[in-house]
Amino acid sequence: MKKITLILALLVMCFGSSGLALAENLINGAGATFPYPLYSKWAYEYAKKTGVKLNYQSIGSGGGIKQIKAKTVDFGASDAPLTVKDLSDSDLLQFPMAIGGVVPVVNIKGVQAGQLKLTADVLADIFLGKITKWNDKRIAAINAGLNLPDDTITVVHRSDGSGTTWIFTNYLDKANADWHSKVGFGTAVNWPAGVGGKGNEGVATYVKRIKNSIGYVEYAYALQNKLVHTKLQNKDKNFVEPSMETFTAAASGADWKGTPGFAVILTDQSGKNAWPIAGATFILVQENPTNCANAKAVLQFFDWAYENGGQMAKSLDYVPIPKNVAQIMEDAWAKKIKCNGAPVWTK
Amino acid sequence: MQVFDRHKSYKIGDALFKGIAYFFALSVIVLMALIFIVLLKESWLSIKTFGFKFLYSTAWDPVSGDFGALPAIFGTIVSSLIAIIIALPISLGIAIFLTEMAPKWLKGPIGTAIELLASIPSIIYGMWGLFILAPLLSEYVEPYIIDYLGFIPIFRGAPMGIGMLPAAFILAIMIIPFISSVARDIFRMVPPILKESGYGVGATKWEVISKVVIPYTKSGIIGAVILGLGRALGETMAVTFLIGNSHDISIALLDPATSISATLANEFTEAVEDIYLSSLIELGLILFVITFIVLGLAKILINRFSYTGRR
Amino acid sequence: MDLHYIKRKAINLLALAASLLSAVFGIVFLFWILKDVLTLGMPAINASFFTELPTPAGVEGGGLANAILGTLMITVIATAIGVPAGIMAGTYLSEYGRKSRVASVVRFLADILVSAPSIVIGVFVYALLVKPFGGFSAIAGSVALSIIMLPVVIRTAEEMLKLVPDSTREAALALGAPHWMVTVKVVYRGAIRGITTGVMLAVARVSGETAPLLFTSFNNSFWNFKLTEPTATLTVTIFNYALGPYEEWHQMAWGAAFLITALVLFVTLISRVIVRGKA
Lengths: 347, 311, 279
Description:
The structure holds three protein chains of three kinds. By secondary structure, chain B is an all-alpha fold. Chain B is built from 13 helices and two strands.
């Protein structure tokens, strides 16, 4: 028995000391599921190039915000911008890394991608549980010629805190008065109806599995899963399809420099081509980091991503952050992130 | 002189060894107390804010920070009870088969097979349930349940393959091995003389089982059932995959629901506000207390049986 | 013929048929699950599964080598904590405490802890080790698993030690050996087989645990050798991948499921063989 204990103790020491030898080339981040494919792709390429490993775990935006506040990770990621007050309360800085859109996805027999048209009011009433059948008059009225079944709609939403939910409910909140008074918006809300899936992945899986369902996922997930997205009516009363162009159109009016805390919201934007449920996805870092070396490594990674990640982003259907916006962000890094009074970021 | 020294060193060695053993035995008590204290401390904010209302409130509104445990408690208890209702007759059947019917050469292999079923990790059950069982249920089972039994409100809902009933079903499969192996062990403890006197007066096998074996082992079986219930109440992974994660109380068993453990698995790393996290931890505390009571009860019943059973 | 007799016979037959069916039902599910895990998991198992890191979605190839190592590492450390502690506590119950009040309280609590919800243990360790120390870590996962392991080891150790007859102890004591030496050299030797079996079963059980690791060891897409960093495990990987949207992920998840199931069943079977060998 003693021998075994001894061997085990030695093993523990081996693990411990080998850890010391490899110190400080692992960065931990956690948060939004939406940019997960992008960040993991970046991390994969970056590790090949520099040897610095970025461990990003998609646990949901709510989780990202919580973990960076609790300082259990080196950076958090969220699709929901934090308010200026929240940022200053927790000494956090946020900056956007990519722009994307949330799309309603459906699983109805015979309905192809982009065929079903929805308005904000119809979408809200489906998620409020007021419209319960696919052949409801109000859906039929805007979808002449589409054969919709007399089947019960199953609503699929997120079961976890999520920036996707924040963007989606923020849109419904702005566009539908009933939603505003009954539900509101947030990373998690009190859902009036439906089934909960964990993460964009969970919702995608459920929508695929459950017949006559409707859910909402980030665009990249819809594409990769070959889910059937819908068209949506935007603020200018046009029915638009989700695409890189319509997301870019929604983001074109954003005033990054003038918005305190960079808390830019891109839902329900005007513009002929604007997709109504767009949003930026953010990175959160501490302004006074406890682990300065890691804080610097985080910024180096995202600088590299601003610089070299655009093409990879496009190939995965994310809209990259324009160079001039990236410059604004890097200036903010230099000014605000400090270790013992000295700026962490110098280029 | 030497003898005296040896005795002294014996004494020190003994005291040391006993001390270490005592320390680790006490560590169980300390650990249990620590779990209670830590959970209580971390959920204090929620307890202070919501008070007893937390137990019967159905709110689960992270936007306004209003939380209640009832839907999760309801889902936890109902899914476990349904699981027991499905699992009990089958488990007893297995135990009867293994003790009274199976030929000797079959007892070993089947007993082992059932125990292997118990050792499969619960995440495998969950994954299998989601990928294999759920599509089958939604395609071939639930539509018929709705068509033929839909006049009873509990058999309504959409045939999704995900919901309270599928979760309860997978739970039942998971606890069958537990209940049946305890029941088998208890059946074996019935003194042969009791059974033989039954056969002696011309009773059939079933009459001996139902009138002698089961009444004799009643408290032990109840203990086994409660033990299975304890397992089902705390089970996380299998339930999380299949229950549907909806904070609604629905009487229709095909509808999605949630359980305490599924809520924790889904929302724990995501909860941002302190009150949200605190409420989740209070859920954990409630689950801990429920299982503590249930398992404590089972233990007392089984103990009582083994006293009366042995002597 | 006596109608009453026929009725009794019929009921007897029916009831026995029902219990036969129940046994068949149990067996069918076992083989059904095993068959699916095998047929869906096998295709994912190849050399790179054991040697390579996971790739981001859309990039071909990759494996779960880091998760395999992580599961091993976390389980080994959990064993290193849980087993000695459990055996010592079991020794107390069997050799010293016996019918004392402390012993019966410990027994009662250990029995409850055996079936305590593992997710609650995860929450507890999160509050105890993750939040205060500012990060998910392999060691937090190990501690959570060791807590789950502890009561199992305690109870088997006690049962096995109790099986050693008192006459053996008395004989050794009569030779003038001190009590602790009798325990270590005589009683442990007599019970070693049973205790090993119990430990193996406990290790098998915790290596398949997921819930307590979600908030403790968390996950990692890279190798990790540090106890203080998040670490990938097979079970958490299954959880994430199975709920993921990509076919390759499901494939990997089935592969991991196959590996962990094979491991657990193998250990369980071996331990049964050991028990049988003894009897």
